[in-house]
Amino acid sequence: MTAVGAMQDAIDQFYVTASARFLQVAMLTGGIVLGIVAGLQVGVVLGHPIAVSTQPLTIGPVVGQFVGATVISAAFALSAYAGFETVVLAGLMGALGWAGYFGMATLGFSEVPANAAGALLAAFVATIVARRSRTPGFGLIAAAILPLVPGLSLFTGLLQAVGTLGQPGDLATSGVTLLQALGVAVGIAAGATLGTYLGRPVKEQLRRIRNLPRLRPIPGESEQTGE
């Protein structure tokens, strides 16, 4: 999420904040990776070596993907002490975002455009839905894009760089993985920003349409009120 936030700051031309967030991503993820590697080395010293694969994981069955995306987004809202309505909306937005990603991936698009499409769809709908609820649109968007963020790819890339037991570091493979994770983060940030940008005028038009009957004078009202 921090990586995606850094990309959004860069897109919005907040370059100082974006640089600080990129440094935060490197420090946090690097600390996690180094901690795991240190733990593995301790296991070797104690005579209990553990092998950790640095190969990317495969995605499970389709139903499991949508269930997982829904649970992740709903759990994120729940961790923020959101109400029941917000938790349900966040779960639905997470499933919707994953539907956008899954549809694009099924059509043969690569990870970057597929994730961008999922983020755009979720942000667009969340911006409109937030009009009818008391939930801030930013909160729904943050929950919706969480299943899409490339956290595991970023972690895998750094783990490939430092190496694990029986698998020495490979900077070439690590660079490819990290670049892919960076590209996905850019796609998600761009999709979420564009979805919000497109959703705002639609939300405003819906608000005007909803208030239109209230603005129309009732026939004969001026005579009845003596005006």
Structure explained in plain terms:
It is a single chain. The chain is 75% helix and 0% strand. It has nine helices and no strands. The radius of gyration is 23 Å and the shape is elongated.
Largest sheet: none
Q: What count of helical segments does DSSP give?
A: 9
How do the helices and strands follow one another from N- to C-terminus? HHHHHHHHH
Q: Tell me how many strands there are.
A: 0
Instruction: Report Rg.
Output: 23 Å
Helix content: over 70%
- Unreliable stretches: 221-227
How much of the polypeptide forms β-strand, as a percent range? under 5%
The helix-and-strand class reads mainly alpha
Q: How much is the average pLDDT? A: 82
Terminal Cα span: 59 Å
Shape: elongated
Brief summary:
The chain is an all-alpha fold and 227 residues long.
